[in-house]
Design goal:
143 residues, Sufe protein. Chain: A, three-stranded antiparallel β-sheet, 17% strand
Length: 143
């Protein structure tokens, strides 16, 4: 369990210095746009696959601290993983947000969002990018 200040540092670091935030103009990437009807979150997630491996994940647009940080952290975690490993990370993130049993070790820095479920109005912020990633994986698998 991370302390409150460490969680805040992780979130602010990924918000002010996101590693995966950039526009992608490459037709080899699949993309998904998600926007919130209740706040400023309006992002597009881009994913590149090589066979059964997630080669790259990027996102662009406007997002609050929670949206930007959660999307950036999960992008880091699933990059260079197999699709099954990526889906397992996403499943564990959703389980954490839903207050179900999950594997903390798999989520690494994403554990900073372990109290998100206690802030109902922020759950959408913390899942908007993750929903886009899940949708893109589904779209890729259905090809």
């Amino acid at each position: 369990m991370m302390d409150k200040e460490f969680k805040r540092e992780i979130m602010m670091d990924h918000y002010t210095h996101p590693r995966n935030k950039r526009e992608v103009n490459d037709e080899n990437y699949l993309k998904k746009h998600n926007a919130s009807d209740s706040c400023i979150d309006d992002i597009t997630v881009y994913m590149l696959f090589d066979g059964d491996v997630v080669k790259d994940v990027a996102f662009d647009g406007v997002g609050c601290t929670i949206c930007t940080a959660s999307t950036d952290i999960i992008a880091d975690l699933i990059k260079d993983k197999t699709i099954e490993e990526a889906k397992e990370i996403l499943r564990n993130y959703y389980a954490m947000v839903d207050e179900e049993e999950y594997d903390e070790d798999i989520l690494e820095e994403a554990n900073a969002f372990d109290t998100l479920s206690k802030q109902a109005n922020r759950i959408k912020c913390g899942t908007i990018g993750i929903h886009a990633m899940s949708d893109i994986i589904k779209q890729y698998e259905e090809r």
